């Protein structure tokens, strides 16, 4: 190995092009493991068995409950200048002041439908203001007709009025989950908890659920997206810098500023901790008192959910759609847009079919679809255009893994445009991810000139999130417009084995496995992750004509295995390399970084079979 390769640096061109012996993997699995792999069941038969579960559609009573019969009325809209992404604004429509609130009518229609034994709650074509959450109950299909446009109120207080938990000055809140941790918070705009046989459907993509997240609050320059507290983009960022315009925020009114409502010491709310334990979770400064880190700290301290009270006075944005602990679920045939936070986050849901939705929101953290600790899931024929990951499979963060792993998930026949990752696993994966099958996907990246897709196939975890990934199979992925051709980096910890901003794990890799994801943002780093048995085949990534030349990406493959120096727990951890990864029959185009087209660190048994990079076929095995 060259000296830089021994340290886990980029894989140099000379070694990359050297032929290795075909006798076996260099430092890879032994004969027994290889034999076991050979005898494994056909993964695509396993995928088909999951698909077949959904041949029989959900059934609902044949009765419609039209919301106008319960007092709903359309509203008049007016033009307003609003944010459409973190860096762009445009003229949008919003309900005029004093518009009729359809929340009571929609809630009454759902209650009547549920009481009758089920059926369909219909929202007709037209503009509708809903100043509160749409809460589904068992055996109810909420259905939007073509041309139905539901404008959810952008007044945060409207999502702290109707929850099941009266938290005093914080409002009436709902049990939710925010980035993998449980809490009491604002309800999502469409919500369900513990229900069976439910559906959210529309006739086509003109049936729109609009979170109005870029529209300024009444009498306030801020909007939902302001609560992110994101600063102006810079060269190292993971979003387009635009023309210098970006969503502003009020200091102190975001998820990343210290909130004086949060205690000065963690022991005030977690007296069971010793002083040393509390200080370990809090870290060396007061960043833990910002709302996003305060929630993480409460989870690490194992504070009961009843004491994790947020809502009014706090700044954790609600999801557009969040279903928790539901079974027999259907999402089909509508569009989500301008969502405050993730567009869809089903948690602990089982037998879930997602079909022909258009997840179209470009704001910060506007993930398209994030199934968390869900099992037996089929996502198909969907279209994603997002300000964050298009699809991200999750399973809880830190100790909040009571719902177990995400598993038995099939993703097929979907199209992705802008986003951080097209097909992403993690980073919220402490409970593990297994049996993932993705096929026949088009990462179209049609916005490649202005807002390119950062990474095509992405896994992200670290010593805090931990968890495992195993048995992931991806095939037949077409990327006609490449991905982002400029790199983006995360900062590493002081004293890390990885020099800071040296590995392009945030953007630029077609296939990226990142086990050192953004480590400076986690105080507790005691969970070494494990990644094994990944199979990726038939990925084709075309070049695009950039100012610098014809390229498909920055680097073709980036694998950063677990970084032992990131661990800060007791004893010496067992830190396993990323292992048993096979990439075959792919054409990954021409990377900008022609000298180091791959980056490998702490990898064992990476096997490339007929993989073209820069027009040269590679048939080699690597360990680094």
Automatic annotation (TrEMBL):
Keyword tags: Glycosidase, Hydrolase
Top-level taxon of origin: Bacteria
Keyword Hydrolase included in the entry's annotation: yes
Pfam families attached to this UniProt entry: Glyco_hydro_28
GO BP of this protein: carbohydrate metabolic process
InterPro entries assigned to the protein according to its UniProt record, in alphabetical order: GH28_Enzymes, Glyco_hydro_28, PbH1, TAT_signal
Presence of keyword Hydrolase: yes
Gene Ontology molecular function terms on file: polygalacturonase activity
Protein family: Belongs to the glycosyl hydrolase 28 family.
Record protein name field: Glycoside hydrolase family 28 protein
